[in-house]
Amino acid sequence: MSAPSPVLVDLKFNPEGIAHALKTAFPDRGSINLADPADAARDLRAVEYALLWKPDGDLFSRAPNLKVIFSGGAGVDHIIGMDGLPDVPIVRFVDHSLTTRMSEWVVMQCLMHLRAQYAHDIKQRRREWAKLIAPEAAEVTVGVMGLGILGQDAVAKLKLLGFDVIGWSRTRKSIDGVETFDAGGLDRFLGRTDILVGLLPLTPETTGFYDRGLFKKLRGGALGWPVFINAGRGKSQIESDIVSAIREGTLGGASLDVFEVEPLAADSPLWELENVFITPHDAAVSEENALFRHVETQIARFERGETLQFVIDRAVGY
């Protein structure tokens, strides 16, 4: 009986954490970590499983016998479209911790805009004692775009806080107690939305999706102006349109965790806008140990002849 195939790991984040976690991960099969100089030149032709985040461009020619590809995050746009991508299942990362972290970030941003935290920050720096009257959450409609696992969890937690929550996805989803819209209902969805939360995957259809025209379709409601929050994919937004929309008053503020180019350039005007909250793509960072447990579980399913979970549909890109 041949030895089990090691897991090929090519992850372009937190190299120290990855290396440490790999010391105890995959005890029955081992791993090949391309970030380790000792592993970087190894022969990959016998490798059957690969865990990837923004992998090297020549990876698939070096590892021509893959059976399953695992994404190192919830998205797969960093893999789809690569040259030589084999016709094998691509599994995205779904984990309770990642989902919870994303919902925490979304809830925090909605609350900061609800309570005008940026205005309080300005008054604090000026040492001014100035009370602000905020609406209740129930007076504000949060529209969540993207109703996968992350989106549905965010919807549930926003509802618990009392927000009026509606949802949109390319094909309509059914969620108890939540009005949902599909592609044909986009304008009606936007016209009801005070705080727009973007959790869409990146596809050709969503590239540049959040633009000036879309922002103009949002309503202000109890906040007096609409707000844009994005933790989905940076290339889904047009940052120059966000800046213009805020400066001209079309948007009252924004919270951004993702950007067209990362890291965000030091000369980006987004840094200087007082009513924009910026985080460095860390709203829901993949925790290494949870990621490796997820891969190990799915490999075990695959080798028992069971159906893999969380396999993406290549036709739609997620």
Automatic annotation (TrEMBL):
Keywords: NAD, Oxidoreductase. InterPro entries: D-isomer_DH_NAD-bd (IPR006140), NAD(P)-bd_dom_sf (IPR036291). Residues 108-281 form the D-isomer specific 2-hydroxyacid dehydrogenase NAD-binding domain. It comes from the Bacteria. Pfam families: 2-Hacid_dh_C. The keyword Ribonucleoprotein does not apply. This is Glyoxylate/hydroxypyruvate reductase A.
